[in-house]
Each structure stands twice: as C-alpha cells, then as structure tokens.
C-alpha cells in the first residue's frame, strides 16, 4: 500500500510532465493512424496540395485547440473589451502585458502542432506525396539526376509505384527513399531547433527569477492547493446559494441573507498577476486578501507592481479548471 501511495504521489507531482508525454504519444499515434488508414496519395497534380494539407492542417487544428484549452486565453480575453474603457482605452503598459501573455499562450499552444509536424516529417509519407507533386523544375531535376528522362514527367505517380519499361520498381524506390530522407533530415533539424530554443528560454527565465528554486517549488505547490480549495469552496458556496434560492421559491418566503462575492471582487482576483518586490503575493487572491482596507479599490496597479519575470509566468496559466470553457 505504501508503494502504491508513493507512485500516486509521484504521479501527482509530475502531472504536467506526464500530461505532455501522453499528449506526445497521442500525437504520434494519431499521425500513424492517419498515414496508414486515412491518407491515400492521389498520384496526380493534386499531390502537393494533398500532402501539405495532411502535414499542416492537423497542426493548425491542434494549434487552435491549444488556445481553446489554455487557461491564459480565457483569463486574458474574458471581459477584456468592456473593462477600463474597452480594448483601446488601456494604458500602454497593460497592453504590452497582454501582448506578452498572448505570446506565452502562443508558445504553449505550439507544442503539439510542432510535435505533429516533426513526427510527420520523420515518417515521411505526407512529405513524399507533396514533393512528388511539387511544380518546380529545379527540384524535379535534382531529384531525378542520373535517372531516366521519364522520371521528371512521371514523378507525381511514384507514390503509387506505377512502373514503366524504363521506370522500374528499384528506380522508383530509390527516388522515394531520397525524398523521404529529405523529410527525415528536416524533421530532426526541427526537433533539434525546438529543443535548443526550449532549453535557452528555460535557462534565461530561471536566471532572471527573483526568487530561489525552493521558493519556486513552494509557489507551485501553493497554487495547486489554492486552486483545489477554490474549486471545492466554490462548489460548496454555489450549492448553498442554490439550496437557499430553491427553498425560498418552493416555500414562498423571503430568502435568508446570503453573502457572496460581488462582480468587482470576482474581477479583482481574475486579473493578470503582477509581481511586487515589496509584497510577497503568491496569487491575485493572496494579493486581494492582503490588501485589507483597500479591497474596495482596484488592486490592478499597486505601487511597485511590475510585470512578472518569465520564471513566474506559470501563475497565470493556473486556473480552477484545465481551461476556461
């Protein structure tokens, strides 16, 4: 039982890592399923368009889904156009802050699309179909160098292995291997670039962290607990309010007084996090609670507030649920 509890605790601690790993496995499995079951190269002038659609459109769909499932997206957009004078009535600093959060959301949403493209290139099926239909004389001549003259004119039919007297199966296989090798080289280059960029961004963000490694770990633990308790308390509070209203409706009597946060209070704790070196606030709820007598005033901008360093950007990514929809 103790061993099982240890494994469970480890799984909870590494939830994000396991989630990303599972997402990567699902992407790899989905790409393989598409390439085997769904994908059928037309072996015509449609090759390039057909291959690129299978290579890029699923990546675009994953990109959009990444935005939809991001807590940052809805924390940024919900009520954005009606607060503080609308979209164009904000101060420049707030606009820059929103653009930065939008950039971080874009980076997060790009993980799965780039995984799809990388895996698809390593597999080579979509790229092979697309490039056999690529209408470029220079590319066709380079691929068909040292092969029969018919190679250039019949390149689009190669994925279907249509042989002729001069274009034998070994010749076609040799050309397809050459094209697939190009795809795999591009795939590994893309993976290497993404891994290097991720390492650089992580190192730079950690170097600029205003708090220690141990406090960052504590900060993450606090946010997890705060979200868990907020969800639990919200459910309990909503249940009590619903019971009070239903009881009042069916019993035909005046409802009992019930204290619940106002729209302004909900807005205060839903703001994007701002770091303050003078105050140790772990979240906007923490900042609101510690504001004391200033709770009735906006806590959007307090003296000393600055946009959070990149090492603390995980705060706005945490939400009560996995997304805002």
Walk me through the structure:
The chain is an all-alpha fold and 325 residues long. It is 65% helix and 0% strand. The chain is built from 14 helices and no strands. Helix 2 (15-38) crosses helix 6 (111-123), helix 3 crosses helix 7 (125-132) and helix 6 (111-123) runs antiparallel to helix 10 (169-207). The protein starts with a helix and ends in an 8-residue tail after the last helix. Mean pLDDT is 80; it is low at 1-14, 85-89 and 320-325.
Structural class: mainly alpha
Distance between the termini: 37 Å
Number of strands: 0
Largest sheet: none
Instruction: Estimate the mean pLDDT confidence.
Output: 80
* Approximate helicity band: 55-70%
Strand content: under 5%
Low-pLDDT runs: 1-14, 85-89, 320-325
Oligomer: single chain
The ordered H/E elements are HHHHHHHHHHHHHH
Shape: elongated
**Total helix count?**
14
Task: Evaluate the radius of gyration.
Answer: 28 Å
What's the topology here?
Blueprint: H1 2-13, H2 15-38, H3 47-68, H4 71-77, H5 92-109, H6 111-123, H7 125-132, H8 137-143, H9 150-153, H10 169-207, H11 213-251, H12 263-269, H13 284-290, H14 314-317
Helix pairs in contact: 2-6, 3-5, 3-6, 3-7, 6-10, 7-10
């Amino acid at each position: 039982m103790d061993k099982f509890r240890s494994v469970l605790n480890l799984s909870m601690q590494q939830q994000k890592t396991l989630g990303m790993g599972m997402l990567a496995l699902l992407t790899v499995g989905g790409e393989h399923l598409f390439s085997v079951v769904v994908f059928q190269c037309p072996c015509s002038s449609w090759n390039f368009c057909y291959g690129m659609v299978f290579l890029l459109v699923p990546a675009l769909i994953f990109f959009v889904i990444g935005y939809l499932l991001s807590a940052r997206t809805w924390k940024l957009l919900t009520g954005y156009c009606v607060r503080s004078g609308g979209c164009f009535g904000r101060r420049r600093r707030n606009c820059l802050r929103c653009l930065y959060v939008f950039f971080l959301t874009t980076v997060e949403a790009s993980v799965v699309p780039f995984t799809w493209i990388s895996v698809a290139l390593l597999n080579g099926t979509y790229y092979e179909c697309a490039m056999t239909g690529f209408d470029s004389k220079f590319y066709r001549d380079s691929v068909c160098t040292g092969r029969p003259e018919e190679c250039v004119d019949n390149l689009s039919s190669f994925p279907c292995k249509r042989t002729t007297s001069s274009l034998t199966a070994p010749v076609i296989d040799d050309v397809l291997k050459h094209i697939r090798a190009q795809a795999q080289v591009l795939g590994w280059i893309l993976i290497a670039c993404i891994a290097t960029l991720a390492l650089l961004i992580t190192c730079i963000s950690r170097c600029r962290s205003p708090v220690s490694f141990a406090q960052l770990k504590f900060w993450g633990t606090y946010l997890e607990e705060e979200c868990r308790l907020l969800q639990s308390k919200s459910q309990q509070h909503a249940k009590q309010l619903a019971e009070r209203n239903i009881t009042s409706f069916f019993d035909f009597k005046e409802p009992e007084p019930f204290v619940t946060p106002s729209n302004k209070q909900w807005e205060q704790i839903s703001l994007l996090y701002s770091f303050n070196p003078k105050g140790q606030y772990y979240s906007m709820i923490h900042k609101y609670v510690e504001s004391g007598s200033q709770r009735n005033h906006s806590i959007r901008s307090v003296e000393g507030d600055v946009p959070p360093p990149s090492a603390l950007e995980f705060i706005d990514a945490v939400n009560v649920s996995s997304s805002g929809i």
